[in-house]
Structure formats: C-alpha cells, structure tokens
Fold:
Amino acid sequence: MTPQQNISLTSTLALPATARYYGRYQSTSELLSWLGWAQQQGVAVRPLGGGSNVLLAPEVDALVLQSDMCQVQVVHETECHRWVLVDGGCDWHSWVVDSAHYGHGLENLALIPGTVGAAPIQNIGAYGVELAEWVAWVEGVQLSTRQWQRWSAQDCRFAYRDSIFKRELRGDVIITRVCFRLSRRFEPNLSYQPLAEWSAGAQVTPHSLREAVCAIRRSKLPDPAELANAGSFFKNPVVAQPQAQLLQQRWPQMPTYPAQGGVKLAAGWLIEQAGWKGRRLGKVGMHRQQALVLVNYGGASLGDIEALVRQVQTDVWQRFKVALEPEPQRF
Structure:
C-alpha cells in the first residue's frame, strides 16, 4: 500500500497541520496492511477520528490513519436490551440518530462531533449521560503488540472524560468497533435542568428528546463550521469537599455538583469569574456566550492556543486555587 504524503489535516479548531503520511481503511485487513507498511518503514502510526477533540501539531511525523468502516450489526438481544456492534468510522451523531432503530439511551449525546471510535477515549458525555453507561465492550488493535483486543466496560476504566485509552494505553490503540448495550425501553434522562424544564410542556419521545438536546447544544455552543472551536475546552474540575466548602463560603453563588471523589465545579463559571468570557488573546479567545469554549477567530496556531490555555489556567488558579485541565489531547 502506498500512503499519500504531506497531506493537510483538518480539525474543528482549524489549526494548520500536515501529516507526513496519510491513509484510510475500509476493513480490518486494510488496517493490518497499513500497520505492516508502517512497521516495515519504521514509521509511527497515529489514528485520527473526526478531529473534534485534538490539538494538531503543525507537522505530524507519522502515518495518520482514518477509518471508513461504517457497519452496524445486532449481535445479541434479550427482552430488555439489545447489543449493537458499531464500526469506529461511523459519525457519532449519525449513529445516535440511527440508534433509535435498535434501542435507547444515547439521545442526550446527540450532536456531539466526532466518530464512534474516538468516543470511548474521552468517555464523551452531556446533559446527565455518559458514554460509559451504554458501552458493553470496545474492540481494537494494540499498536505496540499488533494484537487484537476486546476491552470490557470495566477494562476501559471509564471516568469523567477519561478512560484507559487516554491514560495507560494513550496512543497505543486503534479502536475499530464499539458494542453498545441499548435499552429496549425508553426511559429518558431529564436530570439536566433545561431538559427538565423543556419536558414539563412537551411530549417526551426519543425523537423529541434528541431534537431538544440538539437545540440546547446549538444555543450554547458555536457551530465549528462557522467559528472554529473544540466544544467545551476544559474539564469541570473535581475538588475535595473541604476545599469546595471554603470556596462556597467566599462565593455562595458558585455552582457545585456531587461527583465521585469530591465536588465538581463548573469550569465555565470559574473562567467567567476570572474575566475571560468573551475575551480575546490575539487570534483566539473564550467565547462571548459560553466561557468554557475556546475559539479560533482565524489564522491561529497551536502556539496561540497553548498561550491562551496557560493564561486562563493561571488566572483561574490565582483567583480560586483550582487547576483546570484541557479536554482536547495534543496530537
């Protein structure tokens, strides 16, 4: 197989980036062929999903691979659940829409950009639902061993915006398929306040819930096609209970949420209080409507992004003594 060379890569943050080698695969056999080529040439392999949660380096000295595998199949079902195996190359939102034909549970995750294969890495979540709740297992190839693996939901060690694929196995796995255990009974999660308010005057169906989620996302987050961004840029920090109590004594209006291991704070609120909502630093800035969203106003470099990230982190730390961690990973 012969890869393309010096190919421009795209991401929702619109950072300029070029891959030394680039290829796509439509089957596991093609993927294996690409891995064999890279091994013979002594070239590193970097899998890329939809480019929605990455910080692309200007020059990626590797074989960048993207999946064109887009099959969906039911592998098991019971009276209450259906297990559906989905190829990693499927567009995430398209799969959420199609998932209604198989079962329920993913409605709150509609309109999140990216691919199915990238979703477990970040353990994507929104509006009271996390991917981890609906994953049965993850399949893929481990690059360091060239072995095919299946990771159970427990093996994935999912946590808030985190997984084993983001820690111990970071950069060492190409996820080829994800199996979802969907409920055959529709039980909407309306824990997110705007959804609860919407449901009070609406007929809640899988379709109407999905559309409501899309409307909320569009009202809060800018469209990357119109204003380059990676969605929520920082993770909501989790702090110990004593620290949360001290913060709330000083800032009683500070939003807090129960979380495993402590108390979750709203990163957007912290950033806004630190003076960064709608503020720019050269070609980048934090969005005027949602302080959690870092945007590229045009022509920004990775260095511009990193400078803004450092400044926001510094200002939030100086004001609250809370560390902010970015969600996107450096590619």
